[in-house]
Amino acid sequence: MEKTVPYLRWRRAVERRTPPDCRIGDDLLLLRQPRPDMEFEMGPFRLDMTLAIYLRQGSCRVMIDMVEYTATAPCMVVVMAGQLFQLVTLSGDMESRTILMSEAFSAGLFGARGPAVLLQRAIRRSPVVGLAGDAAPFETYLALLENLVHSPLRTFRLEAARHLTLSMFYGYSYRLHDVDGAERPRTKQEELCRRFEEELRTHYMRERQVAFYAGRLSFPSQSVFGKYFKRATGLSPRAFRNRMS
């Protein structure tokens, strides 16, 4: 029987699990615990929000669009709405801050034209970026954002948070994610990886068979695709099937 990847519909849990002094409405959450929700351990999930994890201490392993990353503090992990996400392991000493931004809030950050497209592309290409020697601006951003979240004044809080986050992404994260590098022509392997990730995001809810993606990407055989699949994801086709079964 075909299995599907559920969306992590975080809005349903906001009122029940998140106190008002940790959020602005249900569009932005700022959390101190290592993960925003214990359900992340049950992934993978397709996110219906933008997720940003700032690691102050420790490390974790995550899967983003079926590619495994190791994040070691200090660093930032950003996962865009619509991407597949799974939290694999956490170190016992992990200390982090997690920011969840609704799709509506994110739409005001990542438009469909110009620099916004390049920033999205750069984040998808490098979702984990180190902050060694660069953490101070992000600490300042978090402190200002926390003041907004805790402010008793309700007027313009969301707008202020949006503009503050815009400044963070376009004035600071823009450089860390090598947006200028996102403008250079892709290599043949990078283009193939991009197409695979696009197919995965589009069809993964319904299709888990490696042969399906081999056909979609015009590989001569499943064996040839399997070699690429392992290089791109770190998993063999058999390990992929076992993980999803």
UniProtKB/TrEMBL annotation:
InterPro entries: HTH_AraC (IPR018060). One of its GO terms (molecular function) is DNA-binding transcription factor activity. Residues 194-243 form the HTH araC/xylS-type domain. This is Helix-turn-helix domain-containing protein. It comes from Candidatus Tidjanibacter faecipullorum.
